[in-house]
């Protein structure tokens, strides 16, 4: 007959505690059901997390069931959205990842500084930074699709224009008569779209334009950025030639809702 002493009990509890700690650290998912396993966790999320991609329908009256939990809406099959396993979904619930395949949120703010006299070029009605005002910065842009929504703005890529220095892609200036654009930081992709054409559509027309620069969403309000605020994360900053090709009346130049795609 085996006799369990208090020492045996302490040893057993210690082993149990260590085992639970190791399982928690590795985040091992264990089924809690018998017939159909259910999980209250998911594997640890890394930069490249392994997963299984399945097909799901988020439209009304389909196998997706009711409306999406994040926004209580149904979504078209043409919209790139996902639902995540419960562990990942709950862990990232602040982002509500079911609603969008990629949600781009501000990564911080910068405080505006008053431009020195004559240092902010307000050609094309460009804004100058306001002393003390907080401006959001972005390191991402919305997901690119076949028809990506964006805001078209007006910029001069000529020497002495409100675009500042030469274009980042080719270290050159470009005539206002040439259809060229700068893209928000996320879309610019560290130069991945440099010197490639995109197709811009609005006002019942389309035009091809070459990407020559970044519309910096991460910095601004300094000499390098002509003391202008950081770009928003959804900007296509275009030359006058683009606005002309879209047939926009001159008195409406400035900002315009558009869609764009890679050519």
TrEMBL record:
Q: Which family does it belong to?
A: Belongs to the kiwellin family.
Q: Which domain of life is it from?
A: Eukaryota
Question: Which CDD domains would you find in this protein's record?
Answer: DPBB_kiwellin-like
Q: Which UniProt keywords apply?
A: Secreted, Signal
Write the lineage as a comma-separated list.
Answer: Eukaryota, Viridiplantae, Streptophyta, Embryophyta, Tracheophyta
Note the Pfam families from the entry: KWL1 (PF24300)
Write down the species: Actinidia rufa
Q: Identify this protein by name.
A: Ripening-related protein 1
The secretion signal range is 1-26
Any Gene Ontology CC annotation: extracellular region
């Amino acid at each position: 007959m085996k006799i369990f002493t208090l020492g045996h009990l302490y040893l057993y509890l210690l082993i149990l505690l260590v085992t639970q700690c190791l399982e928690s650290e590795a985040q091992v998912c264990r089924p809690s059901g018998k017939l159909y396993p259910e999980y209250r966790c998911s594997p640890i999320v890394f930069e490249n997390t392994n997963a299984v991609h399945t097909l799901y329908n988020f439209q009304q009256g389909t196998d997706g069931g009711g409306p999406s939990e994040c926004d209580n809406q149904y979504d078209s099959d043409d919209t790139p959205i996902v639902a995540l396993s419960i562990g990942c979904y709950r862990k990232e619930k602040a982002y509500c990842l079911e609603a969008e395949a990629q949600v781009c949120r501000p990564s911080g703010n910068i405080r505006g500084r008053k431009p020195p006299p004559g240092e902010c070029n307000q050609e094309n009605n460009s804004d100058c930074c306001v002393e003390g005002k907080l401006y959001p910065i972005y390191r991402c842009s919305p997901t690119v699709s076949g028809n990506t929504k964006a805001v078209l703005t007006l910029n001069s890529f000529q020497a002495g224009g409100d675009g500042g220095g030469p274009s980042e892609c080719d270290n050159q200036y470009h005539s206002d008569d040439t259809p060229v654009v700068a893209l928000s930081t996320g879309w610019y992709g560290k130069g991945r779209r440099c010197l490639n054409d995109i197709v811009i559509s609005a006002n019942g027309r389309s035009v091809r334009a070459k990407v020559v620069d970044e519309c910096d969403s991460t910095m601004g309000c300094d000499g390098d950025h002509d003391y202008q605020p950081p770009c928003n994360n959804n900007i296509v900053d275009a030359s006058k030639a683009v606005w002309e090709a879209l047939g926009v009346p001159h008195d409406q130049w400035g900002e315009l809702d558009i869609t764009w795609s890679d050519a």
